Amino acid sequence: MTRGALTVLVGCLVACGRPAVVGGDGAASAGGQGANAGGTAAGSAAAGGSTGAAGGSPAGGGAATCAPEPLGPDDRLKLVFVVDQGDLMCVADPPGTGDLPNGCDAVVVPQGVFQPARTRALLAALDEAALLRDAEVALVAFGTTTVATTFRRPTEPLLRSRVTSLQSELAGRSNLQRALRAATQLITTDAQRLGAEARARTRYAVLLVSAGLPTPRCSSVDVAAPMPPALPGERWPDTPGAGTWCNDPLADTLPGEREGFVPGGDLNQQWQLGEAVDDLLAVAGQHGLAEVRLHTWQVFHDATAQRCGAACDGFFGMRTADARATGAFVLDDLARRGRGSFVGNGELSASFARVPLFLRACPR
Q1: Closest CA to 78 of 141, 116, 132
Q2: What angle do CA 86, 219, 281 make, to 5 degrees?
Q3: Which of 56, 67, 129, 346 is such that its CA lies 20 to 30 A from the CA of 157?
Q4: Which of 226, 219, 228, 323 is nearest to 271 (CA)?
Q5: What separation, in Å, do the N-terminal and C-terminal C-alpha atoms of the chain show?
């Protein structure tokens, strides 16, 4: 694809229709059964097509129009992929190798699934990014700990190597709050090395690829609500099985696993994730950047989850039947806050690879 054709595609993808939610049932080729929890805000988001990137509530389907913002002749685009590497990806985006006692070997993957959707999509996205002048890509992989790969050209072998290793490096929990902070630090450090003129024409697009189910969630106050709460935006109780991790200062943890977290406090609550997104976007004003936006994409393999059923409740920290709809609510909420777009559940390779999707400008 030529640069001119790519620019035309940018405008059309944004202007030719309602871009706030992409995918949903129409994009799902891995199950695609729609929301597992009907009649809720989360169910509405997971079904795709009823939520916007800003305004209104998910249940109300507040529509928003994302204006086209193709790259100008002097603009630079930097992509940050924030990719979920918790063990729950064994079910949400199989296949994979994890470190739980029963691990991913206990998950029955449907026939013909050999590589996670996020791996295929990221490789395709690197190919597309290579067509953009001066584009650079960074990667934040998060599980129990967070591993960041700094900005580099999308053609560099290290990036492809990191992406292809994703399925063999699943690592316990999915600490999303820490991952968002890591992305903020990555952009801040990169911006500080640029001159004022370069910062003014540099746009950072952050893409969160996840099931939307951060673990563990910890609560500083006792919550009697079930997991998940009736409304996912409410306070969450401690993730089942994580009470000791959340509250015991002497709990057996990996080095650095609870860095920045005080036992007995809050972690991965929705309001905390929202504040982390606010801090991410604030980097633009602090350093004179053209913009910083957050887009979210949900991966959730319906067929694997349905086959696993209640046996996989431990992967998600809740009933498997509630997992996809709850995750969609979480990711849609973060995209709204991040002035970006939410792409609903589905197999991602067809639409994820279109780097121009990241050039949408959505109102807050």
Answers
A1: 132
A2: 65
A3: 346
A4: 219
A5: 32
Three-state DSSP state, 289? coil
CA-to-CA distance for 343 and 24, rounded, in angstroms? 7
Handedness of CA 69, 70, 76, 80 (dihedral sign): positive
Structure tokens belonging to residue 202: 């540099």
**Alpha-carbon dihedral sign for residues 17, 277, 192, 260:** negative
Summarised one tens digit per residue, pLDDT across range 204-222 is 999 999 989 998 889 998 8
Residues 166-173: what's their mean pLDDT? 77
Q: Is 185 helix (H, G, I), strand (E, B) or coil?
A: helix
The fold adopted by the segment(s) 3-55+73-361 is Rossmann fold (3.40.50)
- Scored b (16 or more CB within 10 A) or e, 313-332 reads bbbbbbbbebbbbbbbbbbb
Identify the burial level of 86 via C-beta atoms within 10 angstroms of its C-beta, where 0-12 means exposed, 13-18 middle and 19 or more buried: buried
Please compute Rg for the chain using Cα positions.
Answer: 19
C-beta atoms surrounding 112 within 10 Å: 5
| Backbone angles phi and psi of 209, in degrees to 5 | -110, 110
Distance between alpha carbon 158 and the CA centroid of its chain, in Å? 22
Q: What is the pTM of this model?
A: 0.78
Residues 97 and 165 sit within 8 Å (Cβ to Cβ): no
Contact of 139 with 252, CB cutoff 8 Å: no
pLDDT, one tens digit per residue, over 286-344 is 999 999 999 998 888 888 888 887 777 767 777 777 888 889 899 999 999 999 888 87
Cα separation, 244 vs 247, in Å, equals 5
- The residues spanned by each domain of the chain are 3-55+73-361
**Burial zone of 131 (CB within 10 Å; 0-12 exposed, 13-18 middle, 19+ buried):** middle
What distance in Å separates the CA atoms of residue 325 and residue 320, rounded to the nearest whole number? 10
> How many residues are given for the chain?
364
> Taking CA 251 as the corner, what is the angle to CA 262 and CA 170, rounded to the nearest 5 degrees?
90
Residues 339 and 294 sit within 8 Å (Cβ to Cβ): yes
